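Lab notebook, bench 4. Still working through the backlog of constructs that have no structural model yet. Next entry is a single chain of 387 residues. Request: give me the structure tokens for it.
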Amino acid sequence: MYVAVKGGERAIEASWRLLEAARRGDTAEPALTIAQIREQMRLAVARVMTEGSVYDEELAALAIKQAAGDLVEAIFLLRAYRTTLPRFGYTLPVDTERMEIHRRISATFKDVPGGQLLGPTYDYTQRLLDFSLLAEGTESMNDAGSSQPVSSSTSAARTGEQTLADATPPAPMPRVVTLLDAEGLIEQERVSESAPEPVDLALEPLLMPADRAVRLQNLARADEGFLLSMGYSTQRGYARNHPFAGEIRFGLVAVEMEVPELDFPIELGEIEVTECQMINQFSGSRKAPPSFTQGYGLAFGHSERKAMAMSLVDRALRAEELGEAVSAPAQDAEFVLYHSDNVEASGFVQHLKLPHYVDFQSELELVRRLRAEHAALRTAQHEEDAA
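Model written out:
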């Protein structure tokens, strides 16, 4: 047994060396730097930060490099590192209405206060390979590829030269749903002063039934592909839910924290987030007039698909509280919340690669015994029929 264990250790160490060589690739090519990943793979970095539950672009880029581009593995690495960090306290809720907007669109109203800012997006590009990118180091930013936000309400053409007005941070923009709220046409959740503090899923296990605060925490770090599939199912009729993208906004928000020694909150810094408010079919009762309902999504960095899918699933999971029949997978909170975490899912699936010799041998012996008993029974039956 000891020899087998030592042999296994040597094989594992050799696999580590092979992994390092495979990750590095052809040494004739320059090594990929953390700064390159952070600056040029920002969407991948945003996903790893969101699902890894750590806002740190450098660490997320490091995890991506270490995982050779496997984002689920990178998320696992970052989540594991997160468990080693001390907890100093809780920040105040970020005020996304005061966001410094980089991109902001609405599919429900054409003209919204502050205008629609297209910003950096693939939405208006053709899905064709750009072979000019093969000429490494020669890419140049043109007007169409500029990352500067462009307002559809502005007639002046943007140029590569930044004016004084461009350098000034844009004024905060009110949310689009306030247009509906002014007429009382959409529900608005306002937390009461007597409401208990939300459960922190980083410290407490997920228990059912889960309130909306817990569900949103779970969905924020849930696997984007899983949420996308669940959200897509609601659009195909598996929740009887017709959504409209009320607003999607991406930009910088301030993170503030209260400290006991001061009478005012201090700003720790700014982070990039993407927020989505999805407007859904209306509900009403004898006591309350019909009004639109909504789903909510929030993710680190530029993560529109994740925030949209999250808002769709959030709305679907509210079926019971809104008096709707729970008949679709996306409406089943236990199914969605317990299977959405890619760290748990990946670990449980990939553990099948580990040795299961004893388990399989026991089942193999059982099948052999059952087959022998079956053969003996058939032989006895044939002998009885022959007699």
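Notes after review: The radius of gyration is 27 Å. The longest helix spans residues 357-386. Flag for follow-up if needed.
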